[in-house]
Design goal:
This protein is α/β, with parallel strands linked by helices and about 425 residues long. It folds into three domains: about 130 residues, Response regulator (Rossmann fold), CATH 3.40.50; about 35 residues, no CATH class; about 210 residues, Alpha-Beta Plaits. The chain has 14 helices and 15 strands. It is elongated and about 95 Å long. The chain starts with 18 loop residues before the first strand and ends in a 10-residue tail after the last helix.
């Protein structure tokens, strides 16, 4: 028989969790118990499901600190019935399953019910049990440490909030919980910018040669504000903006800000790329399509929104402003032009400038719609985007990019863009 590693292991013998051996074969039960005891485990033997249930009923209702080693077949009962009974009693006890040869399928089914491991009764299965229980014990110990860390993190976060500090500064004070810090900072600032701010204490503005700026504006919002309760109107607007957030996150655009009823985002920052104009237009089409689909689902007692949407591409400067309350923003003539493009748009339409058109004309179907004169007195042509061309679309509506389009643009064909 192969030698087994002493169960003191990395967890330490004092941390070994008691093992309940639930096996109706008394002889085999004894062999398993003696083997585990030699390895340092504290064991209790049960010869039936009823014995196990009776023992559980002696606990006052708190947590049970044990690992169950259960034979799948238990005389007139089986492991599934016993586990269901334990669940009905309100207990959740980690368990490892023992099965006979040819019962691997049964073991897999029990893994789906929550088994932490399974052991097949073959020549060296007793040694396998030892190794399995050592592994499970260590896993439980790690999970408990993680739970303790989460509780400490939650406690620290609550203390920081009581001091009314900004969320970013709160999370800087919890540097050892970097994973959660990154997630929180990413919801406020781009992750790259947030990390730079944490590492250096500041972040420098940066110039970008080609960024696509998208504005989405609610039509007639002022009139709606006069006729609708303010709380209902703001709640409804927040629901729409939440959906827009999900769309731009899916396609890798960066939300800049909301200005009243206007939603602003951009592509190509803080990470530069050559496809941001195409992605921004796809996002614009999806936002308009989603807004129209919400009309059918809308409660008649709540206000309905229709959007005009505009996109322009050009150079910008991007950076963080503010000392205590940080805001990531962009500046430049391109931002002003994008604002003019959305003002010249129409209901349910995606209006783009000629600069954006030049970058995306290969992939979409358009209709010309005249030009505007900028404040510097030069004209800019505009186009309505109707849809993706069929050969570049993954759906009949022309809203989703095909693999062909993603490949041409050298975009990673991951879930992010579907």
């Amino acid at each position: 028989m192969a030698k087994t590693r002493k169960a003191k292991s990395e967890t330490g013998q004092k941390n070994l969790i008691p093992v309940w051996i639930i096996e109706d074969d008394q002889y085999l039960n004894g062999i398993i118990k003696r083997t585990l005891q030699k390895q340092g485990f504290n064991c209790i033997s049960f010869l039936s499901a009823k014995e196990t249930s009776d023992h559980i009923n002696t606990f006052p209702g708190g947590k049970i600190n044990a690992i169950m080693l259960i034979d799948y077949l238990l005389g007139e009962s089986d492991a599934v019935k016993l586990l269901n009974e334990i669940n009905e009693l309100g207990y959740s006890i980690p368990f490892v399953v023992m099965t006979g040869q040819g019962s691997q399928k049964t073991a897999v089914e029990l893994m789906k019910l929550g088994a932490m491991d399974y052991v097949i009764k073959e020549d060296d299965f007793v040694d396998q049990i030892v190794r399995s229980l050592m592994h499970v014990t260590e896993k439980i110990a790690v999970n408990r440490k993680l739970e303790e860390s989460k509780k400490k993190l939650k406690s620290n976060a609550e203390k920081l909030k009581a001091l009314n500090d900004e969320i970013i500064m709160q999370k800087i004070l919890v540097e050892n919980e970097k994973a959660k810090t990154d997630k929180l900072l990413q919801s406020i600032l781009p992750l790259k910018i947030a990390n730079e701010l944490l590492d250096k204490g500041y972040t420098k503005p940066r110039e970008y040669d080609s960024v696509s700026i998208l504005f989405a504006d609610v039509i007639g919002f002022s009139d709606l504000a006069k006729s609708s309760p303010a709380i209902e109107l703001v709640t409804r607007l927040d629901n729409y903006f939440y959906i827009f957030d999900e769309i731009i996150e899916q396609f890798g655009l960066e939300k800049i800000k909301t200005i009243g009823d206007c939603y602003m985002c951009a592509g190509g920052i803080p990470e530069e790329n050559n496809h941001n104009a195409v992605i921004a237009v796809i996002v614009g089409l999806k936002i308009q399509a989603t807004t129209l689909s919400l009309l059918d689902e809308n409660d008649e007692s709540l206000p309905s929104f229709r959007l005009r949407l505009g996109i322009h591409s050009g150079p910008v400067v991007a950076g963080v402003v503010g000392k205590n309350k940080f805001v990531y923003d962009i500046w430049g003539d391109a931002v002003n032009i994008a604002s003019r493009i959305v003002e010249a748009s129409e209901r349910d339409k995606v209006n783009i400038s000629e600069e954006t058109y030049k970058l995306v004309k290969k992939y979409f179907i358009f209709s010309e719609r005249g030009e505007i004169i900028t404040k510097r007195n030069y004209p800019i042509k505009m186009y309505f985007v109707e849809r993706l061309k069929p050969e570049y679309s993954a759906d009949d509506e022309g809203l989703s990019p095909s693999k062909k389009l993603l490949k041409e643009l050298n975009i990673n064909q991951g879930v992010k863009y579907y």
